[in-house]
């Protein structure tokens, strides 16, 4: 059976714990601690880069759209004026999707209720003045 020579390897930065298992216990522990420190350093750098790349205005942008979609009133299937948080029946879900979501994604007018100026023929329900609704939006249940 092949027995490796007992050598000191703690000075080599690129030795992994798999290689260090072949050597003495104290060398293995040094390599293990070195790997732990390198992994923690990588985790800290990666977390800092990800968290630092977020703009402070992202929070306000998110809150604007959350309030826009959840606080917009609509008439429920029973004729009651509701918001997203008041939905209880499936008919209310469809009323919300039809009156709030669909009208929010596909606009007929610009801001201040001005008609869009365009040389192309008027197509109803456009989103951000460029996207065109070609068919009926459908919800798909994936199992």
From TrEMBL:
Query: What is the membrane topology here?
Result: Multi-pass membrane protein
Q: Does the keyword Membrane apply?
A: yes
Stretches that traverse the bilayer: 36-54
UniProt domain Polycystin: residue ranges: 84-143
Domain of life, per lineage: Eukaryota
| InterPro entries tied to this protein | Polycystin (IPR051223), Polycystin_dom (IPR046791)
Query: Where in or outside the cell is it found?
Result: Membrane
Q: What family is this protein classified in?
A: Belongs to the polycystin family.
Q: Name one GO molecular function term.
A: calcium channel activity
Q: What is this protein called?
A: Polycystin domain-containing protein
* GO CC terms of this entry: membrane
Source organism lineage?
Answer: Eukaryota, Metazoa, Ecdysozoa, Arthropoda, Hexapoda
Q: Which UniProt keywords apply?
A: Membrane, Transmembrane, Transmembrane helix
Q: Some GO term, biological process aspect, for this entry: which one?
A: detection of mechanical stimulus
